[in-house]
Structures are given as C-alpha cells and as structure tokens.
Amino acid sequence: MFAAGEEPVGVRVLTYQSSGAIKRILNTLEAEEVEIIRRSAFGKIIDIADKPVFSGRFARYMLSRQLKTKKKHEVWFRFAGKPVRFSLREFAIVTGLPCGKFPRRSKLKLKQTISEKPYWPSLFGKSDYLTVATIIKMLRRKTVKDRDIRIKFACLSILESVFLPTSLKMKICREHAEAIEDIEEFFSYPWGRMAFDMLMCSIKERDEVALTKNTIAIKGFALALQLVMVEAVPSLTEVVQESCSSSESDSEDDVLDPRWAKKQTLSPAHARNVDKKSHVVVRSILSQDSDRPVDEASVLWSDEEEDETVDNMVELINSNYTFVHSMFVGGVTKMEVDHMRENSKPAMKTKESKQHSSSTVDIDPGFVGSLVIEHIKPHVAVMELKLNQTSRRIDSIESYLTGYLESLMGKFKEEMLQTITSMVITYLGKGHSAAPHDPHLNPPETHNFVSGNLPYMIPLADDNAKSIRNVMENLSDYSTPPSSPRNCQAENTLSPTIALGQSGLLMSAPVYQGMAHSAHSQNHSRQIDMNQLSGVDKVVPRDLMDMPSFTLRLTQEENMKGAGEGVVKESVNGSPLPDLNFADNIEDPQTSRKSKRQKMVPSDLVENYHCGPHILSRLRRSQKFVFIWYDQREVERKFLKLSHQLACNSVINVAGLSVSSKEIILIAERSMIFPSKVVDILIHLVRSVVLQHLSNENLHSCYFLDTKFESALVRSYPKFKKLKNKESYSFPKGVLALVNDDGGTPLQARGYYFPFSLGKEHWVGVYFDTVQGHLSVLDCNMSYSNEASVAKFLTPLLHMLPYLSTRGSMDIVREEVMPFRFDRPKVVSQIDHLPDSGLMAVLLMVTHAVYGIDACKNISTTSLSEEGKSAAIMAYEFKEKL
Predict the structure, then answer these.
(1) d(CA 876, CA 322)
(2) DSSP state letter for 689
(3) Which distant-in-sequence residues (6+ apart) come within 8 Å of 659 by Cβ?
(4) Highest mean pLDDT range out of 27-31, 468-472, 733-737?
(5) What is the pLDDT of residue 129?
C-alpha cells in the first residue's frame, strides 16, 4: 500500500478489547471451573492470558506495512523483507476457536426460540440490561453459586469483551445469552469466523488516506494480529516492556485495579530494529498446531477473490524462496496520499462538512518543516552575517578595554605608592621636626606619657588614603583567628616608637596593632618598597630607624619579648628613659568587647585586597550562606573535580541515604523539579553538617523533618477524614517515629521545619510553631498559586496536626481542637524558575531557623548556583574529600 520509507508514522491502534479482561474473568473462577473452560473450544484463551497484552503502537506499525492485494478475507504484511499472511486459517491456529461455516438459518431459528421461551430470565432474572463489568462483579462476589451458570457467565463475558468487542463498556447480547442455553451447541458455533469477519471488515474498510491518521479504532479481536506476528517472528518476544497506559482500550476497572496496573507488552522499538535486519527467522505461513489441528477446508470463503500475485507468492513460500526488501516495490508516497485526500472530497460540501473534514486532515510535519526552512533560510543567512559583524566588534572592544584597563591599573598603582610614601614621610618628618637640637635645652624631669587613646591624626591625601586607613584600622580583627588572644585597638595603641615633642615631653607615635601584627600575615603581608623611603634616613636618626613598624611585621609583644620585661630606651640625647610596662594597658581580650554581635567584615577589605581563606569564610558566614563554606575559586575547583568523579555511575551513603551520581548532578544543575529523594538529601545535609557549624540558640528548639512526614500525613488523611471522633484516631507508627527520638520520647522542639510539594511541581518550606499552633509557608514563587490553592494542598496538615499535637508528640495543648491557620510571608525572596524551588525551600527554612524571617529576603537568585554546587560537593564529600 505504501512505498518503502513512505509509511505513515501514527501513534497507535485503539481497540475496544480490554488488555486485562481475560485475567480479570479467569480470576473470578475456581480452579475446577477454569479447567472446564480449558477443555472447551474457549480453552486456548487461557494460554493467551499469559502472553504479552495488545500493543497499539505495534499494531499501528504493522498496519502501515500492508501489501495491497485483491483478497477480501486476508491481509499480507511485509516484515524483515518477507511476507506474512493473516487469514482465517492463521486466526484459527492462534485462537483455537471453531471457524467453520455458519449453520443455515441459525438466526431465524434463534429468533423463534426467543419468542417462544426466552432463556434470559433464567440467567439474569428481571434485568433487561447487563454489562460485562456487572457479570464479573457477580462472579467475584459469588452472587451465583451454581457452577453451570457461573461457567455460562464467564463464557458470555469472554465472548462479548474479548472476541466481539464494539465498545469499551460491553453489554451482554440477548441472542448470545439465548444461544448458551445448550452449552455444547454454544461451543460448537463458529465464533472464530464471526470474530475474524468483524476484525477483517474493520481493517479492510480503511484505505491509504484513512491509514495516515494518527489513531485508528479497530473492532473485534485485534490481539489476534499480534499473536500471528509473534508466531511468525519469534524474536519479537526477546524484548518486552511494561505498559501502564490506559489509552490503549483499558477500561476504568483496569486502571483502578492495582493487580493489573502493569502488564507485559511488545516493544515497538525492538520490533523496528528487528524489521531492519535481513537475517531474521520469519514464517510467512504458520504451521498447524498439533494440539488443536485446523480443518483446512473449513477455513475457506465462498466469495473470496482470486489474485495471481498472491498465488505466486504462496508458491514461492512453499518452495522456501528467499525474499529480500528490494522485491517489494510500488506503493503510494506521501504526496500521492495528499492528492488522494483532495480528490476524495465531493465537489459541493456544506460548511459543516468542510469544517469536519478539515479537522480530520493530518499535515505531514516533515513537509511543513521543509517549507519553513526554505522560507527562513535567507533570513537566517542575514542574521548569521550580522552576528559575525557583532562578534568582530565585540572582539575589538575587548582588546581596547584590556589595554585601557591595564594602563588605568598601572596609574592607580603608581598613585597608591606615591600616597603611601608621602604619608609615611609626612608622619615621620612631623614627629622629629620639633625635636630639640639645642644642647642647653634641658628636658623636664617628669615624663608624661601620652595615652594610647590619642587619636591617630594623619593628613588624608585623597580617597585612596581614606580606603587604606579604613583597611588598616580593621585588619587586625579579621586577620587574627578568634581563638588567638589579641589586643583591642581602643585599649592599647601605645607603640614602642618614641620621639620628642615640641614641648620637650616624650611623645608616643601610635602604631595600630592592625598595622603591626597578623597571625596569618607571614605569607600575605605587603611590604612597602624601602627604596622609596630613602629620604627618611636623612630625617630620622639611626637609633630611631630600628623601631618596629607595620612594614617589619613586628608586634608589641615581640618587641617586649626581645628586650625583656623592663625595656630601657634612651632618648635622642642619650639620657635613659624609665621602664615602660606595656602589660598595664593589655587586658584579657575576651573581656574587651561587650557586644555579642559578630564584627562585620569591611567591604573595602575584600573588594580592594587579596584576602586569605579565613577572612573569606567569615565574610560568607556574615552573608548568611547555608551550604557555601569555600570561596568561589575553591568551589569551582572542587565542582570540576566532582564532575569527573561522577562521570561513572556510583552510589554514595549520605547520612543514611543511598545517593546516586545523577541525583548529585541534579542538585548542582537543577534541570528539573527535585523529586522527594533529592530534597531529603538536602535535609539530611542540613541536619548532619550545616546545623553543626551554625551557632544559634534557636536551633536547639527546632527540628528539620524530611518529605516522609508530609507524605505520611497526606496518605493518612482520607481515613482520618472519615472518622467522626477524630480524637480516637491512631496515627501510624511511621508518623510518630518522625517526631519522636530513638527511644520513642517526643522531641522537645518549639518548631518543626519540613518541605512540602504543591502538586509535585513546586516546593515550599513549612514552619510549624508548636507553641502558637500556626504554620508559616515559605514560598519562593507566590505567583504560582494563590491562597486558596495552597490551603487546599495544606488541608491534611491543617486538620491533622492539631490532633497530632494533643497526643503528646508536640508541646501545644488546647481545650478545643481547631484546625490550624497558615500564612505566607511576603518578605521571602522570589524566583521565577520552578526547578529552583526545591533548593530554595531548604535555604529559606535554614535561614528562617538561624537568622529569622527578615533574612529570608536577602537570598538572591545569583547565589543559588553556588549553593547548589556546594551542596553537591558536600554530599559527595561523605565519600571522599575533593
């Protein structure tokens, strides 16, 4: 019918036969009743029940590969370059049904019997209308006890729903019910010929135009076509797949019955691969079944057409001729089918018929695609030219900016060096300009030392000097680890550098500890080029050139340790100075600051200077990150190594969860909505790693639950809702185990955090306050659903949590149990990309627990990528460090 390579590609063949009808009928019968049917003419149907169920896609594949013949009661298919026949003979072989000729005047005799003494009331009583589903229900409930009646019910159900189906909800035909009065005569009736005739008429009435539709509805026992192909090509059953779709004529009972939810069927993809091969065993004409031989003379048709081509092909098959693909030539193409469709339209049509016909016409996607490509090809060429021009312009701009920025940074560096040099020279020159040089000028006997709280006045040359001063004043608090003792700036700023003031008093030039010392600055300190300070030697005496400064990386403690407890310095004129006890100004560093708030890291320190990892980590903690514990460069390095490690599939144990490589990659890439297991991975990371590094007193009264909590409540809600006395409801042990510790004692938590899925398309974080009896929904995409939709999803939680609370598993106690209420804070950060909602929900819950609701508005979309990569790294490092 169709030329090779021009076959229509449709979706499937729809049949009215239920794929699970045979097994549903047989399972309602007892073993002895099944054996009685097995020994009858319907016996082979029991073996068919164990074979792969009907595949609409495979049937669609075969119908598009028909050979065009003159035969009325048989069809030929080509498969793997060989012909395969489907006739009444093959139908009788695979079904075992009697397929002889119809008895003469059987219908007239049947009508006379119905009018004289109907048998219907003896079977079904006063019921005038019965469906197959009703009969199956009666058999399953054993409404009828008589064995003979039960066998008749089963045979009528098989006949109507398997062999002669014309609708999804089949009814029991009165004529068939009258015929089963004598069950032996019923089994001898040629039901196979009737079923085959119904199927063949449904196939033959479709021409090339009808076969190009996406879906085709077939009446009768369409499974017989698949059974014949399986017998002809045994390799088709090498690969089978599970079919859970209800679209291929499955009834509602099949869908609702969990026993038949999954069935084995043929794989259309495997069938296509077998069809492309040339060396495949194909039986063009089936052999007889030795257990149920078929009378060849009884399967003929008196009105069959003669076809010489078919006769020649049968002779070649009987002589074991080898067929190849190239022998099957001819057939129509897609263009010819379109012309046939146009010519089949009548000359004059009404408006309604035109609309109906236009709705049924299928457009070839490949043809439309070629037209579109030819139309837009010139425009694409113009766009490509413009893109190339734009790329060249961007390259030129990039080269210009590179040179410009290099020159700008060079000038900035020179200005910085000049500014620092002038500041040091100005400071040192001012300190010695007033020193007495007259030998007759005697200094006073008393020595008043200037307190360390004397403000450090340095003339600011420009904005650069201001930035440097800000950095130097704050450097000591962030370059020294919190565990090491250090001096506060305001407590002791007295420097060992001593000079003479204008009044002859000893003046102290304060050098801040931030400039003088850093516990981690041995490898990262920046030294001023001493060649630029050559002019200082002319101003400052040599004995004062030994003083420590920030360029020498010395501290007050180092100076004191080197000189001893009592350090004796001489003034410029050589007179001894009294001992300076710097320990008087040094107090316990732990009692210096009264505020408990952690110091903020100056932004100038990170933006303008290269800082070590200890400062960057404190900056990230101050920015309230959750999974990020490394700087960006370290995260990228670890993630690059992680990508190579996850190239091969592996399973990692993450805090009790078995995690695959694909799930870790999904955390980092967020290419789809997180499944429940991926969200549970993040919750386990929060409980086992993140919360252990965050210090907050509120965390001791909060507990994080995974998705099992909300899913268990949702599953239990239908049973809970039916109870009138809901206080007597016994919650499942799985629900109580989530809110109890290992010993079964309720967790003493003020609040519970758990993720919640809205329709399996969007994740939110839920905070349950056990004291207030209130739910807060942390929703990162409030435009996805309104309040009413969220309330509908949260109905199981709002109604069940009050009763779960009163059972002692939580702290809330009320006289009257009322459903809880919820709110959605509007200050929560919002995102538009739904696949990010799983990670965002976990970040919002942790931020809310540690920092409060106000911090939830500071989570930016730009940090999600780094948070996801860091979470993936954290999960993998349960196995090994990267």
Answers:
(1) 58
(2) I
(3) 651, 652, 653, 681, 875
(4) 27-31
(5) 80
Position 616 scores a pLDDT of: 54
HSE of 244 in the Cβ direction (CA atoms, 13 Å)?
Answer: 5
In angstroms, the CA 233 to CA 155 distance is 31
Give the number of other Cβ atoms within 10 Å of residue 828's Cβ: 24
pLDDT of 307 higher than 70: yes
**Domains of the chain (ranges, CATH numbers):** 12-327 (no CATH), 426-591 (no CATH), 695-859 (3.40.395)
Residue type, 213: K
Query: CA 774 to CA 759: how far, in whole Å?
Result: 22
Q: What is the pLDDT averaged over residues 14-30?
A: 83
Alpha carbon 96 to its chain centroid, in Å, reads 49
Query: Hunting for tokens 């807060």 — which residue is that?
Result: 776
How big is the CA angle at 438 (ends 432 and 440), to the nearest 5 degrees?
A: 140
The full length of the chain comes to: 882
**Per-residue confidence band for 114, with pLDDT thresholds at 50, 70 and 90:** low
* pLDDT, tens digit, 9 for 90 and up, residues 514-523: 333 433 434 4
**Quick one: pLDDT band at residue 865, thresholds 50, 70, 90?**
confident
**What is the Cα–Cα distance from 346 to 423, expressed in whole angstroms?**
100
Q: Answer whether 751's CB lies under 8 Å from 696's CB.
A: no
Relative to beta strand 651-654, strand 657-660 is: antiparallel
Q: What is the C-alpha to C-alpha distance for residues 42 and 185, in angstroms, rounded to an integer?
A: 13
pLDDT in tens, 444-479: 444 443 333 333 344 444 555 566 666 555 554 444
Residues in a beta bridge with 775: 768, 822
For tokens 């010519």, what's the residue? 343
Residue 673, number of CB atoms within 10 A of its CB: 18
Q: Helix 268-276 to helix 56-63 angle, to the nearest 10 degrees?
A: 30
Q: Give the CA distances from residue 122 to residues 125, 126, 139, 199, in Å, rounded to whole numbers and listed in that order.
A: 6, 9, 16, 32
Strands, DSSP E only, in 730-787? Answer: 751-758, 762-769, 774-778
Determine contact, residues 125/143, Cβ cutoff 8 Å: no
Residue 652: in which H helix or E strand, if any? strand 651-654
Q: Which two tokens stand for residue 418?
A: 């000049």
pLDDT digits (tens, 9 = 90+) for 203-234: 888 877 777 777 788 888 889 999 999 999 99
The span from the CA of 25 to the CA of 72, in Å, is 34
- State the greatest distance between any 2 C-alpha atoms of the chain, in Å, as a whole number: 156
Q: Which of 165-179, 349-363, 530-544, 673-687 has the lowest mean pLDDT?
A: 530-544
553: left (phi over 0), alpha (psi -120 to 50) or beta: left
Q: How confident is the model at residue 433 (pLDDT cuts 50, 70, 90)?
A: very low
Closest by CA to 283, choosing from 121, 99, 446, 93, is: 93
Q: Cβ neighbours of residue 467 under 8 Å, at least 6 residues apart? A: 604, 608
Phi, psi of 168 (to 5 degrees): -75, -35
In this prediction, residue 88 carries a pLDDT of 93
For residues 457 and 450, what is the distance between their CA atoms, to the nearest angstrom? 14
Q: DSSP 3-state assignment of 241?
A: strand
As to burial, measured by CB atoms within 10 angstroms (0-12 exposed, 13-18 middle, 19+ buried), residue 525 is middle
| Distance of alpha carbon 409 from alpha carbon 405, whole angstroms | 6
Structure tokens at 230: 């399986």
Query: In which residue are the tokens 């219907």 written?
Result: 120
Q: State how far the Cα of 378 lies from the Cα of 374, in Å rounded to an integer.
A: 8
Strands 762-769 and 774-778: antiparallel
pTM score = 0.42
Helix (H) or strand (E) run with residue 86 in it: strand 82-87
Query: Of 150-164, 206-220, 492-506, which one has max mean pLDDT?
Result: 150-164
Give the C-alpha separation, 671 to 659, whole Å: 17
% of the chain exceeding 70 in pLDDT: 67
- DSSP-derived letter for residue 2 is B
